[in-house]
Design brief:
174 residues, mainly alpha, 64% helix, globular
Length: 174
């Protein structure tokens, strides 16, 4: 697969992913959730095969939009083991300025929350007693410092956005 073919396929998969998660469609019912699960499983397997054969899709290979599309597929990976691998290879790409540290922060938090650990960047929310609430955060007193280091806005602004819109999808590329 050429870099151009990979770019085109990443962008195509991102378009379908976002269309399937369109908040205007309302909360998905069982049938749509099952279809989404199958779609995510297919994307997980496909991205895993790309990473196994080519490594993480780098900005210099596929461009910023397609590199972000790879991250989006990693965010929605159905296998925690695959998601951990994606985080690891994406972190190596970030070190070489070939992927977004901001996107990696979201993936780091997603993997941590799915693993029963505290998140570092405060990107993951859930439905709580008083509406959307952040999942537990490690060392909250250092949160804004960690967020700034990866290019994220202060947590208070992010939390206000999440609470105002009620749309986790807009915030994490869902």
């Amino acid at each position: 697969m050429t870099d151009e073919e990979l770019r085109d396929e990443l962008l195509r998969r991102m378009r379908v992913d976002q269309a399937m998660r369109d908040p205007a469609k309302g909360f998905p019912g069982d049938r749509r959730l099952a279809r989404l699960q199958r779609f995510d499983e297919g994307n997980t397997a496909w991205l895993y095969s790309v990473v196994a054969t080519r490594g993480w899709p780098l900005v210099s290979q596929v461009g910023e939009r397609a590199a972000r599309a790879a991250w989006l597929l990693a965010q929605h990976a159905t296998s925690i083991e695959a998601q951990r691998l994606f985080r690891e290879v994406m972190a190596e790409a970030v070190e070489r300025d070939e992927a977004s540290p901001r996107d990696l922060a979201y993936l780091e938090d997603r993997v941590r929350v799915r693993s029963g650990r505290l998140q570092l960047y405060g990107t993951q929310f859930h439905d709580g007693v008083d509406g959307l609430e952040p999942m537990p955060i490690e060392e909250p007193e250092l949160l804004d410092e960690r967020r700034a280091a990866v290019g994220l806005e202060p947590f208070a602004a992010y939390e206000a956005f999440i609470r105002k819109t009620g749309d986790l999808g807009t915030a994490d590329g869902r």
